[in-house]
Amino acid sequence: MEKATVFKSNRSQVSRPTFQSCGFPEGVRQVDMAGESWDSWFDGLGVTADFLTERDQPPVQEREGF
User: Fold this and answer.
1) Which UniProt key words apply to this protein (predicted)?
2) How many CB atoms lie within 10 A of CB 19?
3) DSSP-derived secondary structure letter, 25
C-alpha cells in the first residue's frame, strides 16, 4: 500500500509522498537539489538543427468549440 503524509501548510493542505513511492531506493531518506545544473542549458545556444527531426507527430485533432 502506498503511503503519504497529509498536513496543513499555511492555509492549504499538502501531501508528502514517501521516497519509495517516488521511485527512490529503500535506504534513501534525503535528496539534495542539483543546484544550477539546468542554468547552463537554458543559457546556452539551444539545440542543434537535427534535434527531433524524425519525431512521429500525430495529426492535429479537430475539436468542437466551447
Assistant:
1) DNA-binding
2) 14
3) -
Name 59's Cβ contacts closer than 8 Å, sequence gap at least 6: none
SS3 21: helix
What are 44-65's pLDDT values in tens digits? 888 888 888 888 889 999 999 8
Its pTM stands at: 0.28
User: In the numeric block, which cell numbers belong to residue 29?
Assistant: 531518506
**Euclidean distance between CA atoms 1 and 7, whole angstroms:** 19
pLDDT band at 3 (very low <50, low <70, confident <90, very high): low
- Give the span between the Cα atoms of 8 and 21, in whole angstroms: 21
